[in-house]
Structures are given as structure tokens and as C-alpha cells.
């Protein structure tokens, strides 16, 4: 039987109290090794723009304005855990949140200095913003992926991590727009106008407009081109990231994290499918050679697809209906979309399997049958019975 890999994700914000202790670091890594886990994901840069390592340009987590991470001052978690990984023979991936640089509730000095980088959301006629932030987490402050200074800054962080630590891999998270209502800044609209070769600046309402009669947002006549433009911005940035990593640390792999719901990813400028996938059941706007040319799977070594659904199997109900918003549905779709362009790891959200190890084992089996490995999010949900299950699961596959 092919020995596919189990990867453990350790989120800094959820696990910082445990990670602060060297003894606990050793315990986590020893349990991972003994259970058969081969890879660990650690945070290098959290969603609010702070780094867990000592950066020359980005603020450290210990400078978070409410003081929650004061005790981490002077600590370089990435260096500590890279060393720990090598000590225990585990591969280390450093995750970087890319286009997020602030927290809505806190006025940090860094954000005050860089607030011109922030995304501009489309405004409704008569005032009022269409959306305040990332869907599902309005505390996260996004910056404009098309802004030249933003790209220069984020590329510098990627290069810094690759050069200083030579990790086994770097994962890009939130390397996208927050939602379809951003970015409508003058800079982005001018770039878009130049890209479509219009002699004037495109207006926001030509892309999206609010239909007061229907009480709903409608697509303007330039919306399809806008979707492609934003996907090209992300694609071209990923290509630059790849070049920086290869130059600084040739053996370091590049991965992308994304939710496995491809049907709405275009709203965030994220085309993570292969350019030659054969899946037809996708939004019409995601079809065509121009959109396919913005593929990210063609540029990275691996995609981590979060299959974060409580239900496992597609076939449910007395009528035998196929339900796609499940672990099985999302990972099988992801496999078809990536079509062998890169490695695929399916992610499971362990909170969905709280006190139900049998269900977790079934979900892991489903992921493994459709991908190159399973990623378990997050270590904070691990307890003795989960460690025992993972050990049994890995041993049965050797």
C-alpha cells in the first residue's frame, strides 16, 4: 500500500501558550513523530500582519497593541521549531498570511503608517460600504494585492523566510482578495482600464452595481474581464514568489492554502485549478482560455484544500441525492480540478469530529483515497484518543 503522508497544522494563535514552553514543543514534536506524522505546519506570519519570527521589516507578534503576546518579545518561533523539526526528523512548512496586515479593533502603528495599502470596497449609491472585511472574519484587514508597494513588502517577507530558515516548504494563505467587492481603488481601476485597453478609467458600477428594485448586487458589462484581471494579479504575484524562493532557497517547496469551495473562489481572485482540468460543473465565468491561463496549480508544488465540512459522504438521504458540500464531494472535486498539476492535500477541521474518532477515521480515509495526503487542523484539538487514532491510521497504511 502507498504510504501517504499525514500533516499536522499548528496554529500560533490557538497554541501560543503551549508553544511558549520548550518542554511542550518537545512533547508535541515527539508525539507527532511517534504517531507517524511526517510534516508540521507552523505560522510565520499571522492573519493580522505580525510575524512569529524576528523580521527586519514586519512587526513581531509581541508588538500586538493589546499586549496579548508581550511574553514572546525577542523569541523567534520559526527558528525554534525549524530546529525542533530537524531534531525529530519532521518536515517543516512555514505558513505566511499574505495580503492581511491589520486587525479592525486595534490601531497598531504599522497599520496607521500603511493604511493607504488597505483595500477599497465598492460603495453603494448614496453611501455605505458593500462589505467591511473578509467573509467570516471581519476583523481581518486586507491590503490591495495589486498595489506595487504591497507586493514589494510581501515578497520581501517570503524571501526573508526562505533565506533565513531554508524551510522544507512555504505555504501562502490569504494570497487573495477578501471578497468580490474589493479592490475598487483608483489604482486598481486604472490598472484594469489599461489592461482592457480603454482610453478612460472604468467606473465601479460598470463592474458591479446595486439594484435597489431587486435589493441585490448585479454584474456589470465589465464584470467578466474584471474577474480575469484580478486572477491575473494573483497569478503574477505567485510567479514572483516562486522566483524569490527558488533564488533564496532552491530546495524549499511552495504551497497554497485555499478552501475547497472552488465555485466561489473566483470572487476572491483565486483560480487554484489546473489550466487543463476537465471538470465541467463550474461557474461559466471560470471557463475560457483567458481565465484558465491564470491557473495557480501550475505554479506551486502543493495545494492544501480545506475540506471543512461536517458531513463526510456525498450520497445521503432516502432519495440518494449527491451532496457536494461534504468532505468526499470537496476533495474529489479538488482532485479533478488540480488534475495532477501539483500535489493535493485535503484538510480536515478536527472540531467537526469532537469526541467521534470513528467519524474522523472515516474522513481521513476519504481524503487519502482522493489525494496525496491529509492535513489535520488543528493541534489544539488533539487529545490522547486522537493521537492514538492517527498512530493506528498511519501504521495500517505502511
TrEMBL record:
InterPro entries cross-referenced by the UniProt entry: Divisome_Glycosyl_Hydrolase (IPR052177), DUF4985 (IPR032280), GH (IPR017853), GHL10 (IPR003790)
UniProt KW Lipoprotein keyword: yes
Record carries keyword Lipoprotein: yes
Organism name: Evansella vedderi
Official protein name in the record: Uncharacterized lipoprotein YddW (UPF0748 family)
Keywords attached to this entry: Lipoprotein, Signal
Domain Glycosyl hydrolase-like: start-end pairs: 20-285
Residue span, DUF4985 domain: 291-387
Amino acid at each position: 500500500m502507498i504510504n501517504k503522508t499525514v500533516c499536522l497544522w499548528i496554529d500560533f494563535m490557538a497554541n501560543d501558550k503551549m508553544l511558549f514552553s520548550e518542554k511542550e514543543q518537545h512533547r508535541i514534536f515527539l508525539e507527532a513523530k511517534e504517531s507517524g506524522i511526517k510534516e508540521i505546519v507552523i505560522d510565520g506570519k499571522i492573519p493580522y500582519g505580525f510575524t512569529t519570527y524576528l523580521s527586519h521589516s514586519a512587526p513581531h507578534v509581541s508588538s500586538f497593541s493589546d499586549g496579548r503576546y508581550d511574553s514572546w518579545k525577542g523569541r523567534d518561533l520559526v527558528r525554534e521549531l525549524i530546529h525542533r523539526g530537524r531534531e525529530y526528523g519532521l518536515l517543516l512548512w512555514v505558513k505566511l498570511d499574505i495580503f492581511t496586515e491589520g486587525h479592525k479593533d486595534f490601531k497598531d502603528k504599522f497599520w496607521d503608517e500603511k493604511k493607504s495599502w488597505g483595500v477599497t470596497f465598492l460603495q453603494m449609491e448614496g453611501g455605505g460600504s458593500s462589505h467591511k472585511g473578509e467573509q467570516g472574519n471581519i476583523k481581518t484587514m486586507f491590503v490591495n494585492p495589486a498595489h506595487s508597494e504591497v507586493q514589494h513588502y510581501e515578497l520581501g517577507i517570503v524571501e526573508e523566510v526562505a533565506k533565513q530558515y531554508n524551510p522544507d516548504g512555504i505555504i501562502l494563505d490569504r494570497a487573495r482578495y477578501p471578497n468580490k467587492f474589493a479592490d475598487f481603488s483608483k489604482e486598481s481601476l486604472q490598472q484594469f482600464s489599461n489592461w482592457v485597453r480603454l482610453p478612460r478609467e472604468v467606473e465601479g458600477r460598470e463592474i458591479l452595481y446595486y439594484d435597489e428594485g431587486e435589493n441585490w448586487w448585479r454584474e456589470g458589462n465589465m464584470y467578466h474581464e474584471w474577474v480575469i484581471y484580478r486572477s491575473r494579479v494573483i497569478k503574477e504575484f505567485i510567479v514572483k514568489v516562486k522566483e524569490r524562493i527558488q533564488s533564496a532557497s532552491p530546495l524549499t517547496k511552495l504551497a497554497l492554502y485555499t478552501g475547497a469551495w472552488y465555485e466561489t473562489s473566483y470572487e476572491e481572485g483565486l483560480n487554484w485549478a489546473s489550466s487543463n482540468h476537465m471538470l465541467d460543473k463550474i461557474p461559466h465565468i471560470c471557463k475560457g482560455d483567458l481565465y484558465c491561463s491564470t491557473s495557480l496549480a501550475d505554479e506551486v508544488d502543493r495545494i492544501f484544500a480545506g475540506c471543512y465540512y461536517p458531513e463526510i459522504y456525498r450520497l445521503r438521504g432516502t432519495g440518494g441525492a449527491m451532496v457536494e458540500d461534504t468532505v468526499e464531494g470537496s476533495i474529489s472535486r479538488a482532485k479533478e480540478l488540480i488534475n495532477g498539476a501539483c500535489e493535493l492535500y485535503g484538510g480536515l477541521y478536527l472540531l467537526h469530529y469532537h469526541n467521534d474518532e470513528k467519524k474522523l477515521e472515516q474522513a481521513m480515509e476519504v481524503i487519502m483515497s482522493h489525494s496525496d495526503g491529509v492535513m489535520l487542523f488543528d493541534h489544539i484539538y488533539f487529545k490522547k484518543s486522537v493521537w492514538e487514532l492517527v498512530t493506528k491510521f498511519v501504521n495500517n497504511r505502511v
